[in-house]
Amino acid sequence: MTLEYATRYRRASRIPARPGKPYFVEKGEGDRAHLFGDLFTVYAGGEQTENTFNFFTCEGPKGDIIPAHLHPDTYEVFYVTHGAVRLFVEDTEGVQQEKLLTPGDFGFVPKNCPHAYRMERHHTQIVGVAAGPGGTFERFFENLGAPAEEMGLPREPVVPEPHKFGTVPEQYDVRFLPDHQWRTR
């Protein structure tokens, strides 16, 4: 039996709305959101962890690079379970790196480090964890994109309205860097 909870973000969720309550979530039954061509599924967020970390998956097709951005107060990890992801990272001294991550590979991005990624194979899945003194950013995906009731990738890419880029990222410790250039490739 799987329980459903009402939360301030959704009318029905498999994730309890407050911390200190053990729970289980079956595969794919977390809080889902579509953003661009990807599906993000949150299994634990700030509400459950007292804003100490989040745990989510990102699934998507081979595609375009996710724009360069940074998180001023949040550390982020990328762990690939299926497919391949090319991770681009720049440290605080300006040294850039890129690495192709395949199943079992791990990438760590410290706070304040510009980064971007690109799914290199169809049916790619990343497990992500983010933590930092500013809290967690998992609700960014559904607020910039759109909450998804159904499982699976969006039928059509979910492209945010331009005004959302000016307000939503800042709320969730995301700063896009539209003029950033990657020199690694």
UniProtKB/TrEMBL annotation:
Pfam families: Cupin_2 (PF07883). Residues 61-119 form the Cupin type-2 domain. CDD domains: cupin_QDO_N_C. It comes from the Bacteria. PANTHER family: PUTATIVE (AFU_ORTHOLOGUE AFUA_8G07350)-RELATED. This is Cupin type-2 domain-containing protein. It comes from Streptomyces minutiscleroticus. The lineage of its organism: Bacteria, Bacillati, Actinomycetota, Actinomycetes, Kitasatosporales.
